[in-house]
């Protein structure tokens, strides 16, 4: 197990100027683009011990110290790899040196996945988010901060493109999710900068060998697709950041346009609306009935039925949600 | 030189039912999604002799025959490859059999490129579009039809993503361009279907060896990226078609929202507008001063300056276009 340094920076003053500046850049991104002031906040930090979350924990430790903020680390031991217990001990040691409380939970993800029939990746994800939700409540935290960075965002955009995600979802994961109270402060920071930050501080990190496993779609995207895009455009990561900004802007725009939508969308609203707005109104109505929903072919079918006044036409959506064309407009409902 | 068949279909009745249906599907796409009725139209057809444009010429020959439409083929001999003259003779022979007039022009693209300093690809493109513009005028054609298909669209989307094109440009090339009077009837048809169509009719096509040349970015995207996306999602081409439809819808939406924009956008308009609309208003004002302009970082800078009331701030855009923040709003101008 690599040694945790005997002392670690706990405030911006402890950092070399370049890296204090780096942390302030993260703070500015979170303030200006995600709308959250970090100073003085209570944050939970998802901390795997990998490069991303180690850099996140260190930068947030320094940034939240001002204004009396507090952070707590949350680590899930997935018990998937032989070195998982060592990872957990390393995580605990680093948090102790940093003066950050640390919640460590164990979950036998392989067994859980077998029992539920869900994949290992998905089961691990669910177990992590359950831990985060508990830590948010137990520690009265405002957000749980996650270590996703610009390279992750690029992979996410490529995976969404492959899967057929429409706009604005195609622009990638959100920087802030108020429903699950997630914050992604490093989302526009390239991974290479995180590595340079940790190298400067002499902080090692834990490598996750499963990141190399080409059976996972995400790892294939990382190993094969991203390098090809970088070959076509060495500034590809900048392009992804720019696309994400346009996506966030358009997400907000459509959010404003559909803010007042309910389970019934009257003809008076639909007949004034451009199809681009109508489809987003349907989508917003469905989202309000539970979990996200892409701009699917079914939404287009619903819109064609509405346009053709096919009163009584019924459309089924995932999550047992239903839309019906009535003589007054379109009505959405869910079984639950 | 492969033989041109001694007879070729000139109407839907000459086609096997499955392929008549295939042609009617193209007609329906052009009518419903591009807003153009093919029957009775006068069309120029860009005809290289390759698989795409050979399939396009054959299908349009059958579709336009009804209602007294007429087509004329336009072929540019780029004089880049040893077989270029043979290609041109083959093109002339096929048109003769099909009963379609054919305009063949020669351009020494390599020399032109050397003289102008532009790349060979770009010079060839310009020479082709100059030919199309002349044929449009000389033959009084409504549109020039081009053979771009769904595989081309997928490559285009990936190249735009690599380059950092924002939304809705990211969704790929338009199916219809009224400024240059272009029409792309095959844009949502997979290349494999075009090959099957030609195989059924026993029509050979000319292979362009330069399509294999990995020095061209487009060929690298075709050979490396598209197969990887197909590995992640075997229905990737369907995803691209769906994304394109959302893009066309949003393009139209923003077109409607910015329809009345002029060279001066008053504060009264800007202060009511969401940033997503303000950026599209700026873009529309710039587009009206000449050629397209992506949602660049400069547009964001302009918007920040407008928000901060930085009266007198000047922003330069490609094509010698300028935007100035004034006390009344934002004013756009071009040197010419």
Write up this protein.
The structure is a homodimer of 336-residue chains. In chain A, the strands form two sheets. Chain A has a six-stranded mixed sheet, sandwiched between helices. With 336 residues, chain A is of the alpha/beta class. The mean pLDDT of chain A is 91. In chain A, helix 2 crosses helix 7. Chain A contains twelve helices and ten strands. The longest helix of chain A is centred in the last third of the chain and has 22 residues, at 236-257. In chain A, 49% of the residues lie in helices and 13% in strands. The interface between A and B is large, with 44 and 43 residues.
Poorly predicted regions of chain A are none
- Average predicted confidence as pLDDT of chain A: 91
Order of helix and strand elements from N to C terminus of chain A: HEHEHEHHEHEEHHHEHHHEEE
Q: Strand content of the residues of chain A, in percent?
A: 5-15%
DSSP summary: helix tally of chain A: 12
What's the gyration radius of chain A in Å? 22 Å
How many angstroms does the end-to-end distance of chain A come to? 50 Å
Shape of chain A: elongated
Overall strand count of chain A: 10
Shape-level CATH architecture of the largest domain in chain A: 3-Layer(aba) Sandwich
Number of domains of chain A: 2
The level of helicity of chain A is: 40-55%
GO molecular function, one term (chains A, B): ATP binding
EC number (chains A, B): 6.3.4.19
Keywords (chains A, B): ATP-binding, Cytoplasm, Ligase, Nucleotide-binding, tRNA processing
Organism (chains A, B): Pseudodesulfovibrio alkaliphilus
